[in-house]
Amino acid sequence: MKNIVILISGGGSNMAAIVKTAQQENWQQRYGARVAAVISNKADAKGLVFAKEHGIATEVLDHKQFDSREAFDAQLAEVIDRYEPALVVLAGFMRILTPGFVQHYAGRMVNIHPSLLPAFTGLHTHQRAIEAGCKFAGCTVHEVTAELDVGPILDQAVVPVLPDDTADTLAARVLTQEHIIYARAIAAWLEKH
Ligand code: GAR
């Protein structure tokens, strides 16, 4: 069985979309894959409720309990590895990862970013796209490499930026596409590996 471990920090709507698609498309039979665990660095992440309701193991590891990024990432890797993951999926996991952690999951960790990479790495992507006068925005699924929000692009989707958009209305439009492309990119990854 190919175990998928999903890391979240908040709402977990991408995680929920992946779980639903995995059920609808029967990833268990098709790819021998399942979402084995959802791990959050925040105890109040709403996505944990959804995961529990769907019978998925959940774990919380509060980064504030650790003295350094290295110590947190080492413990996080230990928790993740209990599930022997084929693939680690970052889904709104709002932590900068240490090089050692990234190296440990090289070739088997993916991320979704709410911009058309390589444009707008980092935070506040929607506000920055509006301020730059972009006519289009979107989202990107990519493999995780040492540099933040860089790494081979696996899938992208484009949405228009409308004249009266705010960061929130644009984010909502992009998020609907995230839910489609993240599950699609993971299915394609499972097909290949
Ligand atoms: C998503 O828009 C995701 O692309 C973004 O956080 C949101 C999480 O939503 N990720 C990043 O900004 C990573 N730097 P969700 O918790 O509802 O999936």
Automatic annotation (TrEMBL):
It comes from the Bacteria. Belongs to the GART family. HAMAP family: PurN. GO terms for biological process: 'de novo' IMP biosynthetic process. The keyword Transferase applies. Its EC number is 2.1.2.2. Catalyzes the transfer of a formyl group from 10-formyltetrahydrofolate to 5-phospho-ribosyl-glycinamide (GAR), producing 5-phospho-ribosyl-N-formylglycinamide (FGAR) and tetrahydrofolate. The keyword Transferase applies. Keywords: Purine biosynthesis, Transferase. The record marks D149 as: Raises pKa of active site His. N(1)-(5-phospho-beta-D-ribosyl)glycinamide binds at G12, S13, N14. This is Phosphoribosylglycinamide formyltransferase. NCBIfam families: PurN (TIGR00639). The gene is purN. GO terms for molecular function: phosphoribosylglycinamide formyltransferase activity. The active site is at H113 (proton donor). It catalyses: N(1)-(5-phospho-beta-D-ribosyl)glycinamide + (6R)-10-formyltetrahydrofolate = N(2)-formyl-N(1)-(5-phospho-beta-D-ribosyl)glycinamide + (6S)-5,6,7,8-tetrahydrofolate + H(+). Residues 2-186 form the Formyl transferase N-terminal domain. InterPro entries: Formyl_transf_N (IPR002376), Formyl_transf_N_sf (IPR036477), GART (IPR004607), GART_AS (IPR001555). Signal peptide: none annotated. GO terms for cellular component: cytosol. Pathway: Purine metabolism; IMP biosynthesis via de novo pathway; N(2)-formyl-N(1)-(5-phospho-D-ribosyl)glycinamide from N(1)-(5-phospho-D-ribosyl)glycinamide (10-formyl THF route): step 1/1. (6R)-10-formyltetrahydrofolate binds at R69, M94, R95, I96, L97, N111.
